[in-house]
Amino acid sequence: MSHPNYRLYFAGSVVSNVGTWMQRVAQDWLVLTIPGNGGAELGITTGLQFLPVLLLSPYAGVIADRFPKRRMLQLTQATMALAALGLGLIAASGHAQTWHVYALALAFGVGSAFDAPARQAFVSEMVGPADVTNAVGLNSAAFNTARLLGPALAGLMIGALGGGMRATGWVILLNALSYLAVIAQLERMDVTRLHAPRPVARQPGMLREGVAYLRTQPKMMMILVVVFFAGTFGMNFQLTSALMATEVFGKGAGEFGLLGSALAVGSLSGALLAAGRVRVRLRLILGAAIAFGAAEIVAGLMPTYATFMLVCPLIGLSTITLLNSANATLQVEADPALRGRVMALYMTIVMGGTPLGSPVVGWIGETYGARWTLVLGGTLVIAGVGLALLVRSVTERSGRPEGVDEGPREPAMMHR
C-alpha cells in the first residue's frame, strides 16, 4: 500500500470484484427464471463464459506484451461493462431469453480472456519486483472478501426486488456500474511511477517464443506442472463438495452452500498470510501442493458432515497459498518482455485443467463413490509434485539453447 498506483488499483478492484460476484449469482438465477430452463442451460452459460479464457488467453498474453497494460485493462474492463449493461437492461425489461444470456456470457468471457493476463502482469508494474508477493496476496484477499460479500448482497437484493427476472437485471446493472471504478482508478494513475517494460514490437511466432522461453526455465516448468495437477485433479470443489454433501451425508442446498463458505474462509486466511509474506521459497510452493493433496485425502475420509466441513478451510488455505506463491514467483522470475505471455500460459493451465479433470472426477464419483473423488484427486496432486521435480531435473540436464536470455532475477525470490 506504499505505492500510490497500487492503492488506486486496489480500491477500484474491491468494488469491481464485489460486483462480479453479485453478477455470477444474478446471472445463474436469471437463467433459471426463464421458463423451461434447468441445469443444462446453466451449464452451457457457464461454459460459454469460460470457453474464451481457455481458447484466447495465450494469444491475449501476446497482446499484453505488445501494448501498455494500463490502457489494455481499461479496454477490457469497458468490454465487460458493456456486456453486463446489455444483459442487465434486457433482464430489467423482463424480456430476457436464453440466447440473450448465451451471447452476452460469451462476450463477457472474451473480455475476461484478454483481461486476465494483462491484469496479472500489471501487478509487478505497479509495485516493482520486491513487493509482488505482497501485492498478489492483497489482490487475493480482496477477491475472497468479495467472494464472501458479493453472493450475499446479490441474494438480499434479488429478494428485496421481488426475486424475478427484473430483480436479477438490476443486480447485473449494478455490476456494470462497478467497472467504472476500475477504469477511473486506472486513469488516475501516475504513469511515471510504473515499472513498465517497453512494449514488444509485433513479429511472427511470438506465442511460440513464449513457450520456447518457458521450456528453458526449469523452475517455471516445475511450477506449471504442479499447478496443472492441482487444477486438473484437485480444484473441482463445486463438484466434489456437491457429491459429498448430497450422496455421502444426505444434505441439501443450504448445507452445500455452507461448504463453499468454509472454503472461502480458508482462502481468505491464506490470502492474508500471503500478503504479509516478504519472499516466496520454492519449498513453500511444493509444501502447499502436498498439504493441499493431503487435506483432500483427509476430507474424503471424514465420517460426518461436521468433520468434513472443518477440513474445508484447510483445503482453501493450502490452495490459495499454492496459487499465490506460484503466481508471484512466475511474475518475478519472468523476463519483463515476456511476462504477459508467461502469465497467460499460467492462467490457461490453471483455468484449463479444471474442465479437463471434471469429467474424470465425475466418472470416478459415479463409478466408485464420492469419497474417491477426493482421495484419488489428492493422491494425484501429490504425485504431480514428484513428477514436477523430475521435469525440473530433466530440464536442467538438457541445458539451455544459446542466445536465450533468462531475464533478470531478483535475489529475494531465488531461494530454492
Topology:
Layout lengths: L3 H30 L5 H28 L2 H24 L5 H30 L4 H29 L4 H23 L18 H10 L2 H17 L2 H12 L4 H23 L6 H20 L3 H29 L5 H30 L1 H29 L18
Helix pairs in contact: 1-4, 1-5, 1-6, 2-4, 2-13, 3-4, 3-6, 4-13, 5-6, 5-10, 5-12, 8-11, 8-12, 8-13, 8-14, 9-10, 9-14, 10-12, 11-12, 11-14, 13-14
Sum this structure up briefly.
This protein is mainly α and 416 residues long. 80% of the residues lie in helices and 0% in strands.
Q: How does this structure look, described?
A:
With 416 residues, this protein is mainly alpha-helical. 80% of the residues lie in helices and 0% in strands. The chain contains 14 helices and no strands. It has helices at 4-33, 39-66, 69-92, 98-127, 132-160, 165-187, 206-215, 218-234, 237-248, 253-275, 282-301, 305-333, 339-368, 370-398. Residues 401-416 have low confidence and may be disordered.
Largest sheet: none
Average predicted confidence as pLDDT: 83
Fraction of helical residues: over 70%
Low-confidence runs of at least 5 consecutive residues:
401-416
Any idea what the shape is?
globular
Strand percentage: under 5%
> So how many helices?
14
Secondary-structure content class: mainly alpha
N/C terminus separation:
28 Å
Number of distinct beta strands: 0
- Helix and strand pattern: HHHHHHHHHHHHHH
Overall radius of gyration: 21 Å
